Amino acid sequence: MCNILCLGCVPDKPSVYRSYDWRKMNSTGSNFVNEIMCPHCNKAFKIDEAGFADIVKQVRNTEFEKELHSRLELAEQAKQNAIELAKSEVASQFAKVNSAKEIEIQKLKDKLENGEVTRKLAIVEAMTSVKDERDKLANELEQLKRDKLAEARLAEAKLTGELQKVAIEKDKEIESLRNKLSNAETERRLSIADAVKPLEKERDDLKRDVQQFDSQKQLSEMSLKDKYETQIKDRDDTIERLKEMKSRLSTKMVGETLEQHCENEFNLIRASAFPKAYFEKDNDARTGSKGDYIFRESDGADTEIVSIMFEMKNESDGTPSKKKNEDFLKELDKVRIEKKREYAILVSL
Fold first, then answer.
1. What is the DSSP code string of 274-321?
2. List of residues 6+ apart from 118 with CB closer than 8 A
3. Distances in Å between the alpha carbon of 179 and those of 12, 87, 149, 190?
4. How large is the angle between the packed helices 49-111 and 115-256, nearest 10 degrees?
5. Integer Cα distance of 136 and 166 in angstroms
6. Are 25 and 32 in contact (CB under 8 A)?
7. What is the distance between the alpha carbons of residues 310 and 266, in angstroms, rounded to a whole number?
8. HSE-up of 237 (CA within 13 Å, CB side)?
9. Please, which residues have CB within 8 angstroms of residue 108's CB and are 6 or more apart in sequence?
10. Cα-flanking dihedrals φ and ψ of residue 121, to 5°?
11. pLDDT in tens, 276-299
12. Is the pTM of this model over 0.90?
């Protein structure tokens, strides 16, 4: 499909545009048409006034650019042709001049015997002219180089100035940020110091409390150590005393028997501790067995409240067959049941 200007159809046919009087249609508006026929593809399309104005602008711009491009190409071609023509003309002129100079030189040679001086002068003059032209071109080229170099240096200086300006602004901004950062760091340190002071005080107090606790702990440990060492010493003394007592008692009770010793010890506290108690040897063997002692205690109404069967067992250190307390418990429990006693107690060393 063609666009509004049919540029795809008419880039190489500028005569298409000439069939429309664009300037007249755009300036007066009286010849404005709502429908336009593309002269190349013969397709009709409608446009409004604004679109038409845009079309005219596009056409003008396109024609101008094409004309400019065409003229630039023609100018470039004309320049190249002019250069070639100039070269040709210069070569021709140079040939003509050279030929004329040769003829003139020949004439001078023929006319003057001393024509060498004149020839040299002519050559110098010709060479001077060529050198002048060459120097002129060289000077123009040198001037062009200087101009370009000056422009480049000016642009570089301008760019350097702008970069320096930007660098200065950045340095100022960096310095400002550093100052702000330094102030913020100072404030942060002060805030930390203020916040840490109570914690440091609390830490020092805790250290002091810990030291006091350690001191008290050491004193307490020393006190406990002394106390337990004393207790251990007392216990060792008690053990030694009991061992000695056992040795004495064993020797004594081997002679008087453990039964007699227990009876004597009970009788010492009977009146004060057990005024209504009965503690005598068991002499009743009607059931086929008997214990050593029977203990009974009554309340104020002579009602029995407790009864115990006692069995006393003792042996000297020289007894050949040693027995344990557990060896007598079964028999003692049997006697308790036969004697109808509530409890049974084995007394043994």
1. -TTEEEEE----TTS---SEEEEEE-TTS-EEEEEEEEEE---TT-SS
2. 108, 112
3. 69, 73, 44, 16
4. 130
5. 44
6. yes
7. 12
8. 6
9. 115, 118, 119, 122
10. -65, -40
11. 999 999 988 888 888 899 999 999
12. no
H helix runs in the chain, sequence order: 15-18, 22-28, 49-111, 115-256, 258-273, 326-338
**Half-sphere exposure of residue 145: CA atoms within 13 angstroms, side-chain side:** 6
Angle, nearest 10°, between helix axes 115-256 and 258-273? 90
How big is the CA angle at 249 (ends 245 and 255), to the nearest 5 degrees? 160
Positive or negative, the CA dihedral 332, 334, 335, 337 is: positive
Calpha distance 26→59 (Å, rounded): 12
Return the higher-pLDDT residue of 272 and 248. Answer: 272
Alpha carbons 340 and 346: distance in angstroms, whole number:
17
The separation between the first and the last C-alpha atoms of the chain, rounded to the nearest angstrom, is 134
Provide the CB-side half-sphere exposure for 37 (13 A, CA).
3
* Distance of alpha carbon 67 from alpha carbon 122, whole angstroms: 50
Write down the residue that tokens 């400019």 correspond to.
68
With 0-12 / 13-18 / 19 or more C-beta atoms within 10 angstroms meaning exposed / middle / buried, residue 6 is buried
- Structure-token match 């805790």, residue found: 206
Q: Tell me which residue has tokens 């140079």.
A: 94
pLDDT single digits (tens) 167-195: 888 888 888 888 888 888 888 888 888 88
| 3-state secondary structure at position 348 | strand
